[in-house]
Amino acid sequence: MADLNSCSFTGRLTDDVKVKDVQGKVVAQYKIGVNPPKKDADALFITCDHWNAGGVVDYLTKGT
């Protein structure tokens, strides 16, 4: 696992979480809106897939 990249973002959910079952594993899909570092830049929208997201889904709601 040492060859994986790691990123950290702080933002807000743009929509409610979509939950799928893929081969017996719960996958939560959501999009995060991140403010740009400069005021004249566009916002960044990042699509995320959260695997094994069983208990996390209850806490992810739009706007939080």
Describe the structure in brief.
The protein has 64 residues and is mostly beta strands. The chain contains no helices and four strands.
Characteristic key phrases:
64 residues, mainly beta, 0% helix, 39% strand
Provide an overview of this structure.
The relative contact order is 0.30. The model has no long low-confidence stretch (mean pLDDT 85). The chain is built from no helices and four strands. It has strands at residues 12-13, 18-22, 25-34, 44-51. Strands 1, 2, 3 and 4 form a four-stranded antiparallel sheet that branches. The protein is globular. The chain has 64 residues and is an all-beta fold.
Distance between the termini: 30 Å
Radius of gyration, CA atoms, in whole angstroms:
14 Å
Low-confidence stretches: none
Helix content: under 10%
Structure annotation, total helices: 0
Number of strands: 4
Q: What is the molecular shape?
A: globular
Order of helices and strands: EEEE
Largest sheet report: 4 strands, antiparallel
* Percentage beta strand: 35-45%
**What oligomeric state do the depicted chains represent?**
single chain
Mean pLDDT: 85
* Secondary-structure content class: mainly beta
What does the secondary structure layout of this molecule look like, with pairings?
Blueprint: E1 12-13, E2 18-22, E3 25-34, E4 44-51
Antiparallel strand pairs: 1-3, 2-3, 3-4
